[in-house]
Amino acid sequence: MKNYVLTPGPVPVPEFVMLEMAKPIIHHRTAEFEEIFHKAGQGLKKVFMTNEEVMILATSGTGAMDAAISNTLNRGDTTLVINGGKFGERWGKICKAYGVNFIEHIVEWGKAVEVKEIEEILLKNKNIKAILVQASETSTGVEHPIKEIAKLTNNRDDIILVVDGITAVGAFPVEFDKWGIDILIGGSQKAFMLPPGLAFISLSKKAWEFTKNSNLPKFYLDLNQAYKNSLKNTSPWTPAVNMVMGLNAVLEYFDKQGLENVFRRHTILSKATTQGFESIGLENFAKGCTSTALSVIKSPEGIDAGDIIKGLKEKYGMIVAGGQDQAKGKIFRITHMGYVDKSDMISVIAGVEGILNEMNYPFDAGTGVSTASKILDTM
């Protein structure tokens, strides 16, 4: 049976990318690789929508989150952590590991943070040095209002906005320069359609000023070292050579398609999947604040989402993600990132319909597929 990886990371990797990564290894301290590295950096600037340098790190997205803290803050500094899911929670864990104080603003899972609430916290706490937030919270499928949050910080020199865009960059617009974001992070195993192993990070001029006074320990993830080497089209440590080669193949694909069309594809896949499930009575977990990077669907009352997930894998070879912590057994998560298309969305909706039918869940069979098909035909 053919297996379909439909999780929001890792995601399916295109054959043309795998073929590029399968090329013979080359040495990283050569003019040949410097050209490859330079090309990747320039391509990333387009996706990040910035004129600033985008560093390529041989780590996961969490490594770049770690670097964002350790390179800009000091022990005893205070940050504002927007915790609306498992990855928002991670910001607090990183701060705690480095002795950075944090005010944790808890947001109900499935809802986006209210900008007014952030503004009120900032007014009461003048010593906050950074706001830490997700553009797309992978555990809930929520898109937070980054553009509006940035308006609270982009005219202040004493605070930076740090955005985890790991399941956002490449899936929908996150305009680094225009919005005034200070640090933006991306990851290879999401919209960049690569295996796990690379993280991307860009800093504003304000954020670079923060790095000058940071006293937290850093070595492998020293962003000043990464920046100096990036300007020379290399990295301070051994890079993931073939992954960078694969990255260039993806960036060339994005350029050929046009970013607007890449974003549009995610939007249509998201709309079709969400409305397809809604037509058979399955609600979207994030309402009014849905990230187009993935669909997070609530299991029907009385049915454990784990049973749906298990059925998809055993009967159809489809691997989707479940819920975590308080959402465990309540939701299942389907990617729109990576090498997926409309046939994948039709297949997973049909698979869920088949499983629900066996569970005697009342619905008109085929309605979900029919509803999604009409939307997908606009691609």
Primary descriptors:
single chain; 379 residues; alpha/beta; Aspartate Aminotransferase, domain 1; Aspartate Aminotransferase, domain 2; 2 domains; 7-stranded mixed β-sheet; 15% strand
Order of helices and strands: EHHEHEHEHEEEHEHEEHHHHEHEEEHH
Radius of gyration: 21 Å
Extract low-pLDDT stretches.
Answer: none
- Quaternary state of the chains: single chain
Total number of helices: 14
CATH class of the largest domain: Alpha Beta
Helix proportion:
40-55%
Main sheet properties = 7 strands, mixed
The CATH topology of the largest domain is what? Aspartate Aminotransferase, domain 2
What would you note in describing this structure?
With 379 residues, this protein is α/β, with parallel strands linked by helices. It folds into two domains: 4-9 and 258-376, Alpha-Beta Complex (Aspartate Aminotransferase, domain 1); 16-255, Type I PLP-dependent aspartate aminotransferase-like (Major domain) (Aspartate Aminotransferase, domain 2, 3-Layer(aba) Sandwich), CATH 3.40.640. Helices cover 41% and strands 15% of the residues. The chain has helices at residues 15-21, 31-48, 61-70, 86-97, 115-124, 146-150, 176-179, 205-211, 223-230, 241-257, 259-278, 305-316, 342-358, 367-376, and strands at 4-5, 54-57, 78-83, 101-106, 128-134, 136-137, 142-143, 160-164, 183-187, 199-203, 294-298, 318-319, 321-322, 331-335. The strands form four sheets. Strands 2-10-9-8-5-3-4 form a seven-stranded mixed sheet, sandwiched between helices. A three-stranded antiparallel sheet has the order 11-14-13. Helix 11 (259-278) packs antiparallel against helix 14 (367-376). The longest helix is centred in the last third of the chain and has 20 residues, at 259-278. The protein is globular, with a radius of gyration of 21 Å. It starts with a strand and ends with a helix. The mean pLDDT is 97.
